[in-house]
Design a protein that fits this description.
The chain is mainly β and about 160 residues long. It contains two helices and nine strands; from the N terminus they run H-E-E-E-E-E-E-E-E-E-H. Strands 1, 4, 5, 6 and 7 form a five-stranded antiparallel beta sheet that branches. A hairpin with a 3-residue loop joins strand 8 and strand 9. About 5% of the residues have low confidence.
Length: about 160
């Protein structure tokens, strides 16, 4: 009896569907926030993938920026390389790795003067999820017949 049950269970597990994963959406822009610890100012800036932008003494190079469709659990990742501009005229790589927008403290660049972290990825040519939802009426905020609703004072 036990062997038969094990064979049946093995057969069921073999044909059970595996969950499908959504394809990552590759975006052309990475969105970062940077903190200047001297002034206390936080700056938001966008960088096209495979281009460099300077933030203070840092050069930020996003190599890829992926997100998921709006119907999936949020997960925005970017592979980023950050170089520090040295006073001697050269540069020194201080970060090379993945940043996660949902966990900015996990892999943020922490420098004595500047911090940089990923906020998100975007594609200016892609419609937003709300724009794609055609034919869905907006939520109603009042009575369905359009009349004012009277309220009675409570005693």
């Amino acid at each position: 009896v036990y062997v038969v049950s094990g064979v049946i269970l093995t057969g069921i597990l073999a044909v059970a569907p595996t969950p499908l994963r959504a394809q990552a959406i590759q975006n052309p822009l990475a969105v970062f926030a940077g903190l200047d610890k001297i002034t206390g100012r936080i700056t938001t800036f966008e960088i096209p993938v495979n281009e460099v932008r300077r933030f203070g003494a840092l050069n930020v190079y996003p190599r890829i920026c992926n997100s998921r469709p709006p119907t999936e659990e949020p997960k925005t990742t970017s592979f980023v390389q950050v170089d520090e501009n040295l006073l001697s005229g050269g540069t020194r790589r201080i970060f090379s790795g993945w940043m996660l927008a949902e966990s900015p403290g996990l892999n943020a660049v922490e420098h004595p003067v500047y911090d940089v972290w990923l906020i998100g990825c975007r594609d200016p040519n892609r419609k937003s999820f709300d724009d794609e939802q055609t034919g869905i009426p907006p939520a109603q905020t009042g009575p369905a017949d359009g009349q004012q609703q009277e309220t009675q004072p409570q005693e």
